[in-house]
Amino acid sequence: MTSVGLTPGAAYARRIRRRGAAVLAAALALVALLIADLVTGPSGMPLAELNRALWAGPGGEDRAAAAILWQIRMPQTIMATLVGASLGLAGLMMQTILANPLASPFTLGFSAAAGFGAALSILFGGLSPLPQWVETPLAAFAMTLLSTGLIYLVARLKGAQPEVLVLAGIAVLFFFQALQSLVQFMASPEVLQQIVFWLFGSLLKASWTSVQVAGAILALCLPLVLRDAWNLTALRTGDANAAALGLDVNRLRRRAFLLVAALTAGAVSFTGTIGFVGLIAPHVARAAVGEDHRFALPMAALTGAVILVAASVLGKLISPGAVIPVGIITAVAGIPMLLAVLLTLKPAGPR
Amino acid sequence: MTLHASLPAVRKGRRTILHPLELTAEPGQMLGVIGPNGAGKSTLLRSLAGAEGPRPPTTWQGAPLPARRIAYMPQAFQISAGLTVLECVLLGRRETLGWHVLPADMAEAEAVLHRLGLSDLAPRGMDTLSGGQQQMVLLAQRLVRAPLLMVLDEPTSALDLHHQLAILRHLVGYARSARAVIVLALHDLTLAARFCDRLWLLHQGALVDSGPAARVLTARAIGQCWQVAPEILTGRDGHPVIVPH
Description:
heterodimer, A: mainly alpha, ABC transporter involved in vitamin B12 uptake, BtuC, globular
């Protein structure tokens, strides 16, 4: 019996309901933000008009409204959701498998690798027969997987302990950052501008193609991620303990690592570098629903999506007529958010 | 014999830290592994549990003992995760937990917590517990696995005297009622003598002696292995009481 007279099982059931409610609340917040994102933009569009254009579909009679909603805003809004969810999910898995609250796709060099790939493609654009809009994301994607491959190789040779992975990740971060600088140094001012614009991380690059690719990757990874929910929770009790429960700790780490790579590559190859989402979303998720990964994983995905869609709305509201890239918003807003997370939220403890 | 395990030699660099061993035990027995620091107790337990290299051939009534039925508890533990005690115990059923926690799993976790007197702690966060409380929760996590072989590395090292006795009594009870074998390392020779059916005395990576406490715990053996001159008294229940000098 607990102090409130509930059996442990009944108290647990209540806790589970509370967590479910928190996940639901995040989902509702996301829906509200999605609507806010669709109605904001340089060309304006009141809610009633949005509603009409939404129901009329891409082939609606009001061509201007249909084009704005279905060709410009909708792909951007969906892309923000997909990228935010992918980064939130990847961030939580990374922090869990590395037992490190500072780990994220950004801090371990995945984004730097993607940026180098994109910069390379922009600098030597036209070398491949592919059009630029296909080649750049493809190069970013390939380079992200290559960076993962490097870390994975080290983990294979040396064992997938957190220290090994973190050190290899930091090495990869500096390596690709240096290469990126080299490319920027070699580039002409015009090309440099293009590279820098790519690196900003902006939803303006979103299209239905990018939505399909990022969406497919998320849809493929999500069930695989969720299947390991209990295993990831078990890992939080420490390597020795998790291994004693019959869990192959190293194999779980390698598997999760590959999923993180796929999710990150899918997210950043189309939009560019978006920092802090993968770092903050997991902290918010854990503070809200605890470390039971059945809830923390969906919550981290939802939180990531909420942050990025909110950043998108903010980017459109700050300076009317222009759109500030979300990568800049998340980076600027990320620092006070991170401090707020550190100061106000209890980092550990069950919810 | 019901349990049979052949442990291979364990080497670190050129040093042999554990010589090959054949271990046998009967169901319902509690077996104590004793020896001075560095004798190879933890290595033996890790090896037996399959946590040190490949799992050694282990049979139960002639058939291979599945890994699922072995519960190993390492000596070091430090859980800072924001998990509740109940969640932590539920994780012991990791292999069978579905997306929803089944009533059977929940009932078993509640029952084990109740038996260990930990029900009040169930909603508490693991990171708010003392070392001794964490150790008992981890033991509960092992017990919900309903193991046939429990391998415990100093399961009472963080516990006060009262809880040491309670836990050891509980473990003996589990071994007897579940017809399981419990192999545990203990530093306290008096407790080992009182609760274990047989003792395995390790010294410098080799099995020096094994058998009932009264036979293994001689003044000569203790002097040789621990470099102390003990006084061996006889307790109320006939078990040896070791007083080191």
